[in-house]
Amino acid sequence: MRIAITGTPGVGKTTVSKLLAGRLGYEYTSVKDFAVEHGIGKRVGDEIEIDVDELAEIMDETIGKNVVIDGHLSHYVPVDFVIVLRADPKIVAQRLIERDYLKKKVGENVEAELIDEILVEALEENENVIEVDTTGKTPEEIVEEIVHLLEGGVKRRVGIVDWSDRFDDIVEYLRR
Ligand SMILES: Nc1ncnc2c1ncn2[C@@H]1O[C@H](COP(=O)(O)OP(=O)(O)OP(=O)(O)O)[C@@H](O)[C@H]1O
């Protein structure tokens, strides 16, 4: 199976993807690494701007059948399941601040998590979307929850988080 692990930067995609790939005996690949390796996208400042249609086409032709794809654009790749990781926006903020993200970037990503941005994108691309709230769970617990859901034949589970009641606690991060 091809499984995309997507979500707002800082929710724990890379951590979970590597663990899940090991747990399933699957190949691990990240959109970022794949794009650089295959010359997809162009550098804009310190970021790479990726054409998601080109990414999807080349990845679909190149990667194996049993792969975990890590990245906040991975839901654009044709896969069997899209796992959308969620985390309390305050946790996202704290992790991005720890990585010295600029205040503006922190605000953009906290807002994206608050308004379910990646979930909405994933639902536009794939029927099989499974949302997992990572808040307060270890990477191992998250991986076991994903394996349990997949083994249980769950194809779609969304609408499990609503961060609207967290607004007052995170508004400081949203101010530009
Ligand atoms: N379940 C977890 N519990 C505690 N810390 C976690 C958990 N998952 C990830 N982390 C920590 O949060 C930080 C971000 O994790 P990670 O790099 O996996 O996120 P990401 O979504 O891949 O971020 P990006 O999209 O920016 O690459 C890391 O310091 C990681 O160790």
From TrEMBL:
Where is the stretch described as NMP?
Answer: 30-50
Question: What reaction does this enzyme carry out catalytically?
Answer: AMP + ATP = 2 ADP; ATP + H2O = ADP + phosphate + H(+)
The record's region (LID) falls at: 98-108
Query: Enzyme group, top EC level?
Result: transferase
UniProt keyword annotations, A-Z: ATP-binding, Kinase, Nucleotide-binding, Ribosome biogenesis, rRNA processing, Transferase
GO biological process, any:
ribosomal small subunit biogenesis
Q: Where does ATP bind?
A: G10, G12, K13, T14, T15, R99, K137
Similarity comment: family membership: Belongs to the adenylate kinase family. AK6 subfamily.
How this chain assembles, per its entry, is:
Interacts with uS11. Not a structural component of 40S pre-ribosomes, but transiently interacts with them by binding to uS11.
Annotated function:
Broad-specificity nucleoside monophosphate (NMP) kinase that catalyzes the reversible transfer of the terminal phosphate group between nucleoside triphosphates and monophosphates. Has also ATPase activity. Involved in the late maturation steps of the 30S ribosomal particles, specifically 16S rRNA maturation. While NMP activity is not required for ribosome maturation, ATPase activity is. Associates transiently with small ribosomal subunit protein uS11. ATP hydrolysis breaks the interaction with uS11.
Give the protein's recorded name: Putative adenylate kinase
Source organism of the structure: Thermococcus piezophilus
